[in-house]
Amino acid sequence: MEKLFETLKLALITLRANKLRSLLTMLGIIIGVSSVILLISIGSGLKTYITGQLQDLGSNSLYVVPGNLELQPGGGGSGGTPGAGAAILKFTLAHYRELTQKGTTLKAIMGYSEHNGTVSYGGRSKTMQVAGVGYQYPEVRNQYPELGTFFNASQQEAAKKVIVLGKTVADDLFPNENPVGKKITLSDNKFTVLGVLEEKGAFGAVDMDNQVFIPFTTAMSTFDVEKIMSFWIEAKENVPINEAKEEVRQILLRTLKKDDFSVLDTASVVSVISQILGVLTIALSGIAAISLIVGGIGIMNIMLVSVTERTREIGLRKAVGATPKIIMIQFLIESMVISVAGGIIGIILGATGALAMRVFIPTGVSWWSVLLAFSVSVIIGVVFGVLPAARAARLNPIQALRYE
Question: Does the pTM of the predicted model rise above 0.70?
């Protein structure tokens, strides 16, 4: 134990004597560890935020989306993967009317589409997302007008050019006046402002209130599209969600194929999004981990150079009694110290970055991501330190002493 302590002390003295080189050698480990922790934290934060937002919509909500996104058999509701059906828009007004007229378990059916558009008023203009929605939007999304009203069923049916503003849009275009009743321009068309929705908040750098709402029927004519992007549906109270889900599926199967659409409830959407974010987080973390490998190669290269530079020192130590095992342990310790120190710095930087990201999304540093990053940094120190250490241990003391 005393010899090991002396070896560790000697390794630290050697690294301290070459501070800049040691720091540069750590750089790859620092970047890799901090990136892995930061990306895992962001992925976890996104998952928490989106899951919370969807669950707030209630357990009686359904979403009809294009393509086959149903969980595959054997997934058990949590382990399956999304299907690979082609997400081609096939929903029309006829599908909307069929759901409305024949859906006995459905309380509200809302078409939805989104477009990019520019609205202008009084010399001021803004480019934002234009959401084509149904008149039931406030009830389905639990977001009601703060000023004025939302459009009604007759205005939707007639595809009237009426518009409801998000809070940010209203504040920017009408800083000192009530926008209700005013005429604004959207895509070269005049729209009448009916109301302003209550503030919903921001997600990251995206202002959720920086959008406007028009009837989805109006959006189809304004942006010259024939298809509806999706349907948002609310089932009646006391109706089992699976019963409503099956009814929607049977109605649409009269004119569409099975792989043309998916009917998802809130739990299904949360599960699919969680899987996608999970795979994405792992993939991004894997890419970030490449820098750990690069850092390990950097450690190996520097340690090999160090062996060459310290050939006479190694020969002298062997001449006074140091065994090959002691020499090997010394160089392994130096490699591990560089790697572990880089890992600790990377953990601190990654955790600090994750906490700073809380301004945008609810990130959190998980203990397992820290443990994983630290363990990998230790393993890299051992694996990439073996070759230089073994080379140092094999040096012939006589030849080493003669080395110039």
Answer: no
